[in-house]
Amino acid sequence: MKKKDGSYFWVHDIGRRTVAADGRDAIISVLIDVSKQVHTKARLEYAALSDPLTGILNRKGVQSRIAEAMANPRSYLFFMLDLDNFKQINDLYGHKQGDEVLCFVARHLTESFRKTDAVCRLGGDEFAVFIADCANVPVIQRKIGILMEDYREMVQTHYPAARSTLSVGGVSGSKSRTFMELYQLADAVLYEVKNSQKGLQK
């Protein structure tokens, strides 16, 4: 319901039909403010689907988004990113700096893609992005290339001894697939990239 100041609050409406003194039908209704419960539920649902460090989706969150998109699949792109030699950043510079690097990647991905795209941290140093209605793959590839270059420059400036780079592998299509099918396909491409030359996208 809308308040006088223009803001809104959630209510639970409990009512019953009755008859007024003059014989006309009437309804007695009680409105209970449940805004606190609704907001608490929303926070819990968000926490269950998001990564606590970076604030982006977690594996469960992206699985849910992909399942929704695959109910009516169109052209899509799913790609995974792996931070090569990330352990070296933690070992040489500390876990706090490692967390900052993960947040750098998450922030860059969030800023580079649409709000409707599902940006997630799968776990550890592994990220993924699912883009529904992806009509222009070369544009996405250019965005990934910019991210890889920005990451390389950031590492060279702040964590040169780690020699960390980004490797990317993905799959596009329009056939309905589960998250696990997309993951396995993209992971196979990523594995090929990392075994040939790290710091590439394919």
Briefly say what this structure is.
The chain contains 6 helices and 6 strands, in the order ββααβααββαβα. It is an alpha+beta fold and 202 residues long.
What spatial form do the alpha-carbon principal axes imply? elongated
H/E element string? EEHHEHHEEHEH
The number of distinct helices, counting runs of at least 4 residues, comes to 6
Query: Can you summarize the main beta sheet?
Result: 4 strands, antiparallel
Strand count:
6
Question: Mean of the pLDDT scores?
Answer: 88
How far do the termini sit from each other? 51 Å
Per DSSP, what share of the residues sits in E-state strands of 2 or more residues?
15-25%
Strand ordering within the main sheet: 4-5-3-6
* Computed CA radius of gyration, to the nearest angstrom: 24 Å
- Helical content stands at 40-55%
What does this entry look like structurally?
This protein is α+β, with helices and mostly antiparallel strands. It is built from six helices and six strands; from the N terminus they run ββααβααββαβα. Strands 4-5-3-6 form a four-stranded antiparallel beta sheet, with helices on both faces. The model has no long low-confidence stretch (mean pLDDT 88).
Break the fold down into its secondary structure elements and pairings.
Layout: E1 11-19, E2 25-33, H1 35-49, H2 59-69, E3 76-84, H3 86-93, H4 95-112, E4 118-123, E5 126-132, H5 137-158, E6 165-173, H6 179-196
Antiparallel strand pairs: 1-2, 3-5, 3-6, 4-5
